[in-house]
């Protein structure tokens, strides 16, 4: 039997297990958008005159983020939106997703900027993969270089805040992973960022309270066209385990992911007081901010040079 929306009498299209409501199409859209708006406010004030960057890959999460940020901010006259697309150089994957990213930007009238690994690092990820570094997975290179590219382009564009597409599932997994690994510094540094380090663009996470399935449903209902391919290097085994554990806990006890996030929020301030963030140095090679003498990007570039010799 078709269920009825808990807010009106229309047929429901989804059941939100963690709060026991059935929602019709319009009430689901309203429910998701309200939470995103509320959480963006909670993540820090957006000054009347500012530039917001959106880290865009063309995949589901970042494309939905682009559309939501556009809905929320495009009517404010002094807020500029810029999409930043990183081209890691992964053949048959990133080239395809970039087409979706650009198409969405054009549709919404948002300026986009592409920065490639080849231009800024000197090698594509495919070229790095061909070096066959046995001790370091492609994702380790990719993550460090992608962060560096995003930060570089965001600085060039004078972006005040950079929005990323992490959803509630991603965030809950990262919290649990860092907690289990005892990596308190990483745990504290998870976005959104309140403290602004010179040279580092603060992140906001508009989807951090939205479960992945709801992001998918929103994209489907709003007919958002995104790229659904999988990266050929994606074998992040450890994250997969945390995903499974959290999915099981969520199934047994709906609301677990939200509870992981809110517990983290509650202890973050205490942790930050006990472990104040270190003042960052300038990397002695490239001048970018780092807690070490040389930044991770320069460290990995040196590793590539050594392997190449
Ligand atoms: S799966 Fe790994 S290599 Fe592929 S885009 Fe993600 S981080 Fe980069
Ligand atoms: Zn309804
Ligand atoms: Zn450096």
Textual characterization of the structure:
The chain is built from 12 helices and 9 strands. By secondary structure, it is an alpha/beta fold. It has one domain: Rossmann fold (3-Layer(aba) Sandwich), CATH 3.40.50. It has a 5-stranded parallel beta sheet with strand order 5-4-3-6-7. Strand 4, helix 3 (94-108) and strand 5 (111-116) form a beta-alpha-beta unit. The relative contact order is 0.14. One zinc ion is lined by residues 5, 7-8, 10, 24, 26-27.
Provide the fold topology.
Elements: E1 14-16, E2 21-23, H1 25-42, E3 50-55, H2 60-73, E4 79-87, H3 94-108, E5 111-116, H4 117-120, H5 125-129, H6 138-156, E6 161-163, H7 168-181, H8 184-189, E7 203-204, H9 212-221, H10 237-252, H11 256-274, E8 281-282, E9 289-290, H12 296-308
Parallel strand pairs: 3-4, 3-6, 4-5, 6-7
Antiparallel strand pairs: 1-2, 8-9
Bound molecules: iron/sulfur cluster (SF4) and zinc ion (ZN) (2 copies).
Summarize model confidence as the mean pLDDT.
Answer: 94
The N- and C-terminal alpha carbons lie at a distance of 68 Å
Main sheet makeup: 5 strands, parallel
Using the 3D structure, state the CATH architecture. Answer: 3-Layer(aba) Sandwich
CATH topology: Rossmann fold
Tally of separate helices: 12
Assign a percent range to the helix content.
40-55%
Elements, N to C (H/E): EEHEHEHEHHHEHHEHHHEEH
- Uncertain regions spanning at least 5 consecutive residues: none
Spatially, the strands of the biggest sheet line up as 5-4-3-6-7
- The helix-and-strand class reads alpha/beta
Bound molecules: iron/sulfur cluster, zinc ion
What's the total count of β strands?
A: 9
């Amino acid at each position: 039997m078709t269920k009825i929306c808990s807010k009106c009498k229309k047929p429901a299209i989804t059941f939100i297990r963690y709060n026991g409501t059935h929602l019709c199409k319009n009430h689901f859209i309203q429910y998701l958008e309200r939470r995103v708006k509320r959480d963006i406010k909670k993540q820090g004030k957006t000054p009347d005159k500012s530039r917001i960057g959106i880290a865009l890959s063309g995949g589901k999460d970042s494309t939905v983020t682009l559309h939501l940020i556009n809905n929320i901010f495009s009517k404010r006259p002094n807020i500029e939106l810029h999409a930043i697309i990183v081209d890691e150089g992964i053949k048959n994957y990133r080239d395809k997703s970039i087409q979706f990213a650009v198409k969405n930007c054009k549709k919404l009238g948002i300026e986009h900027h592409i920065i490639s690994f080849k231009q800024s690092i000197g090698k594509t990820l495919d070229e790095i993969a061909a070096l066959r570094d046995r001790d370091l997975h492609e994702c380790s290179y990719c993550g460090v270089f992608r962060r560096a590219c995003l930060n570089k382009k965001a600085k060039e564009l004078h972006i005040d805040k950079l929005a990323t597409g992490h959803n509630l599932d991603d965030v809950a997994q990262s919290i649990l992973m860092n907690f289990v690994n005892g990596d308190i510094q990483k745990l504290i540094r998870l976005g959104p960022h309140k403290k602004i380090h010179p040279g580092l663009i603060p992140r906001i996470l508009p989807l951090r309270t939205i479960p992945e399935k709801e992001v998918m449903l929103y994209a489907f209902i709003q007919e958002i066209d995104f790229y659904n391919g999988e990266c050929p290097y994606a074998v992040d085994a450890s994250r997969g385990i945390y995903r499974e554990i959290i999915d099981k806990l969520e199934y047994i006890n709906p609301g677990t992911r939200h509870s992981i996030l809110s517990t983290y929020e509650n202890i973050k301030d205490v942790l930050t007081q006990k472990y104040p963030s270190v003042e960052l140095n300038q990397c002695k090679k490239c001048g970018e901010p780092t807690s070490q003498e040389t930044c991770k990007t320069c460290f990995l570039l040196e590793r590539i040079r050594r392997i190449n010799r």
